[in-house]
TrEMBL record, chain A:
This is Ferric reductase like transmembrane component. Keywords: Membrane, Transmembrane, Transmembrane helix. The chain crosses the membrane at residues 27-44, 56-77, 97-117, 123-144, 263-290.
From TrEMBL, chain B:
Gene3D superfamilies: 2.60.200.20, Cytochrome C3. It comes from the Bacteria. Its main location: other. Residues 28-52 form the FHA domain. One of its GO terms (cellular component) is cell envelope. PANTHER family: C-TYPE POLYHEME CYTOCHROME OMCC, DISSIMILATORY SULFITE REDUCTASE SIRA. It holds the Pfam family Cytochrom_c3_2. It is found in: Cell envelope. This is Cytochrome C. GO terms for molecular function: metal ion binding. The chain crosses the membrane at residues 142-161. It comes from Alterirhizorhabdus solaris. Coiled coil: none annotated. Its cofactor is heme c.
């Protein structure tokens, strides 16, 4: 029994191999070989007067690059079906990452280092942006979950929101005896959407128009000159706002880390389709004004 | 006259709890104050917000107290009449008060319920979505479709539209207006400088969509260019491509790209530079073993200047009279006959009479201590070759044709016109013989009484026989060995019968020996003349003073040679051969590689003494 237990444990540890290390870096090796081969052929291919995408090797690289891009895009379809084995999703993802990186070499050599303000360079730039966003995505996946978990502590998202709601309720109750003007101050905090602020605020974690902070500033302006005698309901409000702000800060950091974790896909996916459209225009233009 | 107020609240699991309360009073106060009849624990509600007063069995009136409005059936107001029979909804802050009538109790029923959450955060939300960045950005799918639409519209539809509007123009073949045209975004790179003006006129070359550029587009402007050779012979001479080449040709034909187009060599869209020079391999592919395929050709095989190029074969005049010009290899040591007698060694000597004479003329003609090459050989304006040598410009200052002086004016013999020379000499000696008397009538029949005429005839015959002039010997001397003409020229003597006069074999100095190639003297100003031309040791005008290919190869090698000057075929030969310099030479001149002619020449002259 014990032996079987150890065996099971071993299996479990071996299954924890990520897509980057998949199958002993098989796809990294393949991608490196392909890139190196492409560079060597490029170096020995004597295209006159200067290398360009219209040479025989240029067309070859272009065709390979185009097919590779279409295949890489298919990960979006493939990922919806998780399977195991040789052609497992993990294997696909591993190939996607490393062959996608090899595309930097293939695509750049296809340009023959000739760039300009045209549809051809547009396709190249879009391709590079997609690849760079992918590289960012991998680094984000490697680094951010730890930060996310550190920030969260033991609380879950739901708990974070529940805490906030609880403070809001307390604020609401504590503010009941207040006159209208003071009640309006508290409402600045209550009516502020913790998920608002837009994408930029999410990514930077900066909320310059934060309702809670404004509410607290207003309350403190009110209570500041008065001595703290302990029976002013505004003082309790102040304490509650303080607590809310601390909670908000943690939640906003959480939102920021999550946004940084997710944002690359909002570049990677839409730009991939922009790239495919640009590639279509690129190939169309080449055959339309056929050299 | 009563109100029933039903306060609805909900338990945590959403169950409704209704607390009804009856008021037997005509007026109810509404507010956040706990003392109000209808207490709304809502911060958006003032402490005393409004009062509601019954005005009839099923009618009531609501009036704001603190001057803050409320909504009645969605309309913001500070006073409203309510018909409980018809019903109404009053919204104050996050609370809704539904007005209705309970006929049995004969009371107006006010159902109070909180509809809004305590705070924004307390509202029921899709938590996963709220925490995800997706809630703050447009969807990936929306963005993807928008980008596809944008890219296709700007980079596909717009250029296509620009192409078709150009096709529909009044004169589709004419030049396109200078402006931005969207199909320029399809250009793969700047055109060469020569074609810069076609930059925005794609159709100038890309005439039909999907059809590769044809030579007809080039010929439309370049109408004076001729073929490299007869197209049939050119086709026969073309090299057999290797496996890779065949595959390329197969691809090309599959994509409707014909073989051997102008653009195969003259590639475009390679940047705004001079059009690239044709590579050596474009020549050597066919010319390396041309004779194997084109067996009757006079052209010798060549593939590389440094390693595989035949000896120079200049066009040499081997006979001045009758004129014969032949292309002969320098290896065969051909002897030129240009009609002139000219020993270079005598003229370039630094110690003989020529040098002494040059010294006496230093001031007047700018000679040095002896003659130098440049004293006679003056570059033409291009610097490529030299101005023709003429008697008047280059010889006459020493080789004078003067024969008389009258009151300070020197009379010279007319160069280039032997008959005039003879006439002038005769005139000089005034020795044209006795004038025939007028009464000597030739072959008239003799009649009695002609004695006087007979006597005249006898005297004339005697005079003719005895009084010959001194001109004839002088003329003979001029044209014979030791004479001024004979010194430099080949003389054609009069026939034995004594008729006719002296003649001169015409002199023909070639301005160019190698008409199949290009040699630019200006480009070689770093060299001295004698480093190539062995003039100082040449004793005969028959010596062909051209350097052999071995001499050139000390500096020049093939395109890839490790020599001082890498020289592809295009440096001396042009594919479309004409009288102008090859493209490569013209290119290098444009780039300012050429040195200043005059200054360099002066330097050479100084060097030569």
């Amino acid at each position: 029994m014990a032996a079987r237990g150890v065996q099971q444990l071993k299996q479990v540890t071996s299954q924890h191999e990520g897509f980057l290390r998949h199958a002993g870096f098989r796809w990294l090796k393949i991608a490196l070989t392909v890139s190196l081969l492409a560079i060597v052929i490029y170096a020995f291919d004597d295209v006159r007067p200067r290398p360009n995408g219209g040479s025989a090797y240029g067309y070859f690289l272009g065709t390979v690059g185009l097919l590779l891009i279409l295949w890489l895009t298919m990960l979006g379809v493939r990922k919806r079906a998780m399977t195991r084995g040789r052609w497992s999703l993990k294997s696909w993802t591993s190939a996607h990452v490393y062959l996608g990186l090899a595309l930097i070499v293939i695509g750049t050599l296809h340009t023959g280092f000739q760039f300009g303000w045209n549809v051809h360079t547009l396709a190249y730039v879009l391709m590079m942006l997609v690849i760079l966003s992918g590289i960012y995505g991998i680094t984000a996946y490697a680094a951010l979950p730890r930060a996310l978990s550190n920030n969260r502590g033991e609380t879950t998202q739901t708990q974070m929101l529940d805490n906030l709601r609880m403070i809001d309720r307390q604020l609401h109750d504590a503010a009941q005896p207040l006159d209208h003007r003071h009640a309006e101050m508290v409402r600045m905090s209550l009516d502020d959407d913790p998920f608002g602020g837009g994408a930029w605020a999410r990514l930077t974690g900066r909320y310059p128009r934060c309702g809670t902070r404004r509410a607290q500033a207003a309350v403190r302006a009110e209570t500041g000159p008065n001595p703290a005698i302990g029976d002013d309901p505004l003082e309790k409000i102040d304490v509650l706002l303080e607590r809310k702000e601390a909670n908000l800060a943690r939640m906003r950091q959480h939102l920021r880390l999550k946004a940084l974790l997710e944002v690359w896909l909002y570049v990677h996916v839409p730009l991939t389709f922009a790239l495919i459209a640009a590639l279509f225009a690129h190939v169309f233009a080449v055959f339309f004004y056929w050299g | 006259m009563s109100f029933i107020v039903r306060q609805i609240s909900r338990t945590a699991d959403g169950r409704e709890i209704i607390r009804p309360r009856t008021f037997d009073q005509p007026e109810l106060s509404i507010g956040r104050n706990t003392g109000c009849d209808i207490h709304l624990p809502d911060l958006a509600v003032t402490l005393n917000h409004a009062t509601i007063r019954q005005t009839g069995p099923s009618r009531a009136e609501i009036v704001a107290v603190a001057g803050l409005p409320f909504d009645v059936d969605g309309r913001s107001t500070e006073r409203a009449d309510l018909d409980a029979q018809r019903g109404a909804n009053i919204r104050i802050g996050a609370h809704v008060i539904a007005v209705s009538r309970d006929a049995e109790a004969d009371a107006i029923v006010l159902t109070v319920e909180r509809v809004g959450a305590v705070s924004d955060a307390s509202e029921v939300i899709d938590e996963d979505r709220a925490f995800s960045l997706g809630s703050a950005l447009p969807g990936k799918r929306v963005m993807a479709w928008s980008f596809i639409g944008l890219v296709l519209a700007v980079f596909l539809a717009w250029p296509l539209w620009s192409f078709y509007t150009n096709s529909q123009a009044a004169d589709p073949t004419g030049p396109r207006p200078i402006a931005f045209h969207a199909d320029e975004m399809w250009s793969t790179g700047k055109l060469s400088q020569a074609h810069a003006q076609l930059e925005n006129d794609c159709k100038a070359c890309h005439v039909q969509p999907g059809v590769a550029v044809r030579d007809s587009s080039c010929v439309a402007c370049h109408d004076t260019l001729h073929d490299h050779a007869d197209p049939a012979r050119l086709a026969a001479a073309r090299f057999e491509p290797g496996a890779g080449g065949k595959a390329q040709l197969a691809f090309k034909s599959a994509f409707n790209v014909p073989e051997g187009r102008c653009v195969d060599c003259h590639t475009e869209h390679e940047g705004a530079t001079a059009m690239p020079v044709t590579e050596q391999k474009f020549c050597s592919d066919c010319h390396a073993d041309l004779k194997a395929r084109l067996t009757d050709t006079a052209i010798l095989n060549a593939s590389d200047f440094g390693t595989d190029h035949p000896q120079f074969r200049p066009a040499v005049r081997t006979s001045a009279m009758p004129p014969v010009v032949q292309r002969l290899s320098l290896d065969a040591r051909p002897i030129e006959d240009n009609g002139l007698k000219f020993p270079h060694n005598v003229h370039l000597s630094t110690t003989n009479g020529v040098a002494r004479m040059a010294q006496t003329m230093q001031v007047e003609f700018g000679f040095g201590k002896s003659l130098a090459c440049a004293d006679c050989h003056v570059p033409d304006p291009s610097g490529t070759r030299f101005r023709p040598i003429t008697m008047e410009q280059n010889c006459q200052m020493c080789h004078s044709l003067a024969f008389d002086k009258i009151e300070g004016t020197v009379r010279t013999l007319r160069h280039g016109d032997p008959k005039q020379v003879v006439a002038d000499l005769r005139a000089f000696y005034r020795s044209t013989g006795p004038v025939q008397p007028i009464n000597l009538g030739g072959n008239a029949r003799r009649r009695p009484g002609d004695f006087a005429a007979q006597a005249t005839s006898a005297r004339f015959s005697f005079a003719s026989a005895t009084r010959y002039g001194r001109a004839d010997p002088a003329i003979r001397a001029t044209f014979s060995e030791g004479g001024v003409c004979f010194e430099c020229h080949k003389v054609v003597a009069p026939s034995q019968s004594g008729t006719g006069t002296f003649g001169i074999v015409p002199v023909k100095l070639p301005d160019r020996y190698m008409r199949k190639g290009w040699f630019d003297h200006a480009a070689h100003q770093t060299e001295t003349c004698v480093s190539c031309h062995a003039a100082p040791t040449s004793a005969s005008a028959g010596d062909l003073l051209l350097p052999k290919i071995e001499s050139c190869r000390t500096c020049h090698g093939g395109e890839t040679a490790h020599k001082e000057v890498k020289s592809s075929c295009a440096m001396c030969h042009d594919f479309h051969r004409d009288d102008a310099a090859p493209l490569m030479v013209r290119d290098s001149r444009e780039r300012g590689k050429r040195v200043d002619n005059g200054r360099a020449l002066k330097a050479i002259r100084r060097q030569d003494g």
